[in-house]
Specification:
The protein contains 12 helices and no strands. With 264 residues, it is mainly α. The radius of gyration is 18 Å and the shape is globular. The relative contact order is 0.17.
């Protein structure tokens, strides 16, 4: 919050000339969201081992504001995806409650699969949105580096379960520091282990501000629950976008969005 007035991000300055404009770049075009006020980013790229060295800083309230503006300017795909996710989860949950053991087991597997797939869709869409592209509905429904995504998700799930078993707080710590693992898998095509390391290092680099952002995200989800189904249709996209704005600010630009648009 004390970084207002400083020079623009070196991460934006070092982006290649043909890169697509990004809402987290200080030099973004007027119709794109600028880097959140009070935020700086001087991140370098991933090294050979996949560990991203970062020196970015965020301002949590401004990150939330940027996320809201991104959602407000392109709400339809996010709402459609949220509805699709709720419907898919509802179907899987219904199947898992069957009196037939085999059907119930298949329903449980389907629930896990739905969780993995839609989380990948959300992260993919958020990266495109934050990097200055307005994703259409079809842009969400693609899977990138999905094998590593599943493996990383399983590792995080096991680590979180163990942490929760050890009096809850260690589990919350695991969830906090590994939160960007799946972003790294999709955005930088990392394997699961490198992504876990990179998430820890990136979040550690600005842990205080990111902790404030995490609290604000939790508050947004709670408000969404209070407003029932309609509230969650807005709350979930905003939380994902806010997390991705912070991720991009701290870790710097990548070739993800440019490559995806070129392949479209």
């Amino acid at each position: 919050m004390g970084n207002q007035g400083k020079s623009p991000s070196r991460a934006a300055a070092t982006a290649s000339p043909d890169s697509s404009p990004s809402p987290v770049a200080a030099t973004a075009s007027p119709d794109k969201s600028p880097i959140p006020a009070g935020t700086t980013a001087t991140a370098s790229g991933a090294g050979a081992a996949g560990a991203v060295v970062t020196a970015g800083k965020i301002d949590a309230p401004n990150v939330i504001s940027t996320a809201w503006n991104l959602f407000k300017n392109n709400p339809v795909p996010w709402i459609v995806l949220a509805i699709a996710m709720f419907v898919a989860n509802g179907i899987a949950s219904f199947i898992s409650q069957s009196d037939m053991l085999g059907v119930a087991f298949l329903g449980s597997l389907l629930s896990i699969a739905v969780s993995f797939v839609f989380q990948a869709f959300l992260i993919r869409g958020a990266l495109l949105e934050v990097d200055g592209h307005k994703p259409e509905i079809a842009d969400f429904f693609k899977l990138t580096n999905f094998g590593a995504f599943v493996l990383a998700s399983v590792i995080i799930g096991i680590a979180t379960f163990i942490g929760m078993f050890l009096l809850v707080i260690p589990g919350l710590v695991v969830m906090f520091f590994l939160y960007w693992t799946l972003h790294f898998v999709i955005d930088r095509n990392m394997n699961a282990i490198d992504a876990l390391k990179s998430s820890f290092n990136a979040i550690k680099s600005d842990g205080g501000n990111l902790f404030v952002l995490a609290l604000l995200n939790v508050l947004i989800i709670i408000v969404g629950f209070i407003a029932l189904f309609v509230g969650l249709l807005v709350a979930m996209p905003i939380v994902m976008l806010a997390s991705t704005v912070a991720y991009r600010t701290i870790t710097g630009p990548s070739d993800f969005s440019r490559a995806e648009k070129a392949a479209a």
